[in-house]
Structure formats: C-alpha cells, structure tokens
Design a protein that fits this description.
This is FAD dependent oxidoreductase domain-containing protein. With about 325 residues, this protein is of the alpha+beta class. The protein has two domains: about 110 residues, FAD/NAD(P)-binding domain; about 150 residues, D-Amino Acid Oxidase, Chain A, domain 2 (2-Layer Sandwich). It has eight helices and 20 strands. The strands form four sheets. Strands 5, 6, 13, 14, 15, 16, 17, 18, 19 and 20 form a ten-stranded mixed β-sheet that branches. Helix 1 packs parallel to helix 5. The longest helix is centred in the first third of the chain and has 21 residues. It binds flavin-adenine dinucleotide. Flavin-adenine dinucleotide binds next to helix 1, strand 2, helix 2, strand 9 and strand 13. The site of flavin-adenine dinucleotide has 33 residues, from helix 1, strand 2, helix 2, strand 9 and strand 13.
C-alpha cells in the first residue's frame, strides 16, 4: 500500500476516495487538493438522486455497490439528518401547463402537484430502488469524517512523473506561487477538468442550470422526471427533487460557454434559471409561490461514448410499470 497519496479535486469522486483511503488500516498520508472549494462544481449542485439498478451491464455492479454504500454511510454517520439521505419514490410525469380537464386525484401523485395538470404518471423507482442525498452536504460530511486528511486549496498545474516512474507528485499553484508536492500515487478526480491534467482521457464538458426553492414544511419524498407541454407548445423536461428544506430542479444541458479554469467561475445565465422556475410553476402552486433560494450552473463531464467501457445512460428510458393513465 502506498504511503503518500494525493487526490486532485474535491468533488464527490475526490472526497469519497479521500474518505476511504484516509480510513484504510495501512494508514497512508492522504492530501486532497481543491482549486475552489469542496463540492463547488457539479457535485454540490447536482440533484443527488441515487438509483440501484439504472445502469447497463458494464457498470451495474458498481451502481449496486455505490447505492448500498450510501445507505451504510448514512447509517454510520447519521446521514439522514446531516445530508438528507432518504429513500423515495421516483415518478415519470407527463403534464400540460394549464387545463382544468381530467382532474387527477390519484394517491400516486404527490399532494404538492396540481392534479389537473397531470396527464400520465409512471413509477420508475420505489423506496427500495431509489434514494437521495443533498450532494453538497454529503461531500462536506465525507471530508469531516475522513481521518487526518490534509486539504490544500490550490490549483494542480501538472502531474509529475515519467513512463518509467509514473507518479512522483504534482505541481500546485497556490496564491500565484508554484510548489511541488511529492506522492507515490496521484488520483485525478477533476471532473470535466481531468483532461487538462491527463489529455489522453477523453472527457468533454457540458453546462446544466438548476435552481432551489425554499420550503417551510417538509415535502413528500417523490423525485420527478417530468415532461411538461407548455401553453406555447414547447415541451420541457425539468427534473425535480424535494429535499428537507428546499425543492431542487434542473433544466436542459448546453455547451454554449467554454469551460473556465476554475469551477467557481462557470457562468450562470439567470434567464435560463428563471425559465426553469416558470416551467415547474406550471406543475405546482407550492413551486409557483415559493422563494427561489439559488440559481446555479455547474459544468459536468461528458464521457466520449466511443471510449471502451463507457456507457451513456438515459435515465428516462428506464422502463417502469405504468401506475396511472
Ligand atoms: C444539473 C446536474 C444534476 C445532476 N444530478 C445528478 C443526480 O441526481 N445523481 C447523480 O448521480 N449524478 C448527478 N449529476 C452528475 C454528478 O453531479 C457528477 O457526475 C458528479 O458530481 C461528478 O463528480 P466529480 O467529483 O467527478 O466532479 P466535480 O464535481 O466536477 O469535481 C471536480 C473538482 O475538481 C476540482 N478541480 C478541477 N481541476 C482541478 C485542478 N487542476 N486542481 C485542483 N482542483 C481541481 C474542481 O474545482 C472541482 O471541485 C448531475 C449533474 C448536473 C450538472
């Protein structure tokens, strides 16, 4: 077991790797280097939905392992309170912006949705197969629960080493000063920035906007993959995840802006965020009247589908039994 390990990137992959390495019985020295702040990219601004069996064969066993690890980490570290871990139903919901026809009062529909807007509901996940976390709180807790983890706020400019001597450390820029940190092993978990350090890794990036709306009372646990036909005729497909004190929703992805050097500098287009609020307001009075508490837009990595072993998943293709017409 190597004794000196550096992890580059404080997103969910980096902090989880650091957590498990720092608790390994061989007691290695683990240093996490993050250029902005913990979970400042996609890992802090994602939906936080976990699914047991939504993966293709290549990654199905990893998905099961990850799903079960989330449950055991929540038990071990009080994740239900600390990062909002909970099992939930996941529905695919087709709706129309406003119509009083077809009053849909099924008990399968969360009480905070406008029943008359709903056209079709399919159950695509149960509390046995889908769960959620607040992703930023989860990442922060992983750092807190790591043992003797050293954290450096700095930008890794280079991975050091050669073909004969693969990894000897990293070059880090902190406040304009470059220094070298030696390591036997370097784990690169830099999300869409990975390719800046390891150009042979075929990862590109895409931006996705999301918003949160504050709630005073707890909202029933249903994750929603929606398809909303707006009065304009446009069909929009926001995903909605209610949490302990807020409801999170994310909209479409785009590639309109270049990837900035730092995760904290990804441009947020307020108009796109307002569009998400408008779209989800069609579904629910609670969402229409709630206060918007965040407008954000992380970049996430996009794996080249031609990469051997890469599986592009479309979660909306997951077949579930129709429960309501
Ligand atoms: C809107 C949206 C919703 C999503 N919803 C879900 C969901 O519900 N469920 C799900 O499972 N997934 C979801 N995802 C995907 C998920 O967020 C990502 O797969 C995951 O966060 C990737 O984590 P990461 O650690 O690889 O990368 P990131 O979160 O991007 O972290 C990389 C980190 O590395 C740091 N870094 C980069 N370069 C350097 C450098 N040179 N030196 C130092 N630090 C560096 C960055 O600052 C950043 O903090 C969603 C993504 C988006 C955009």
């Amino acid at each position: 077991m190597p004794q000196k390990i550096v992890v580059v990137g404080g997103g969910i992959i980096g902090v989880s790797t650091a957590y498990f390495l720092s608790r390994h019985p061989a007691n290695p020295s683990v240093t996490l280097i993050e250029a902005s702040s913990i979970a400042c990219g996609a890992s802090g601004k994602a939906g936080g939905l976990l699914a047991l069996d939504w993966h293709g064969v290549e990654t199905a066993s990893l998905a099961r392992l990850s799903y079960n690890l989330h449950a055991s980490l929540a038990d071990q570290h009080n994740g239900r309170e600390r990062w909002g871990y909970r099992e939930l139903n996941t529905l695919e919901v087709s709706c129309e912006e406003v119509s009083q026809a077809n009053q849909n009062k099924s008990s399968n529909i969360p009480s905070w949705l406008r029943g008359h807007a709903i056209r079709k509901v399919r159950n695509i996940g149960s509390p046995k197969t889908t769960a959620q976390v607040h992703p930023r709180l989860f990442c922060e807790a992983m750092v807190q629960e790591s043992k003797n983890l050293k954290i450096i706020r700095g930008y890794v400019t280079k991975i050091l080493g050669s073909a004969e001597n693969p990894s000897t450390g990293v070059e880090v820029e902190t406040d304009g000063v470059i220094s070298v940190l030696e390591a036997e092993v370097v784990v690169v978990a830099a999300g869409p920035w990975t390719t800046k350090l390891l150009p042979s890794i075929p990862v590109s990036s895409q931006r996705a906007h999301s918003i949160t709306i504050g709630t005073t009372n707890p909202v029933s646990p249903y994750a929603l993959f929606t398809s909303i036909k707006m009065r304009s005729g446009n069909v929009v497909t926001p995903e909605i995840y209610p949490r302990q004190h807020e409801i999170y929703a994310c909209g479409d992805i785009d590639k309109l802006v270049p990837l900035p050097k730092l995760a904290k500098d990804v441009q947020v287009d307020q108009e796109r965020c307002k569009e998400i609020v408008k779209n989800i307001s069609a579904l629910s009075e609670l969402l229409e009247q709630g206060e918007v508490t965040a407008m954000q837009a992380p970049e996430q990595s996009l794996e080249d589908p031609k990469t051997p072993g890469a599986v592009m998943e479309d979660s909306q293709n997951v077949a579930g039994d129709p429960v309501e017409e």
